[in-house]
Design goal:
The chain is mainly alpha-helical and 158 residues long. It has a single domain, classed as AhpD-like (Up-down Bundle). The chain is built from nine helices and no strands. The radius of gyration is 16 Å and the shape is globular. The model has no long low-confidence stretch (mean pLDDT 93).
Amino acid sequence: MQRINYFALAMPAFQHLGAVDQYCKKSSVDPSILRLVQIYASQINGCAFCVDIHCKEAKIAGERELRIYHVPIWEESPLFTEKEKAAFEWTRAVTLINQGPVSDELFRKMQQHFSDQEIVDLNMQIAFINLFNRFAATFRSVPGDRDKVLGLEKANLS
């Protein structure tokens, strides 16, 4: 059961965050990569609610189910490109920034696959999903609770 309806109690703040959401949606980064990093960051943060939402969104958007299942094992999976793997690695480093700085080596790897604008846009998406993970996980949002409101029943994953 959800502890607090944080969305309702902080509605003015969440309305302002809508601008960040729109920025991320219009990002220069491939939308498929953005969806995958939302899933991965949510897994790292232990946010079941966000993992649930973003897996369903990815399936509705046409992501292959097996690739969704392979997100936790991306390092060993042959289903992801080197560019996608760099994005996963960047996601882990940014999400777990408290464990140490993002290395120069990883930054150079990112520059091999992404423009400076794409790196900034990807970082924005990672920071944004981390913010939502911290609300949903802290207040125990229930996976599936927003399916109808968000149109996620179309994923046929319930």
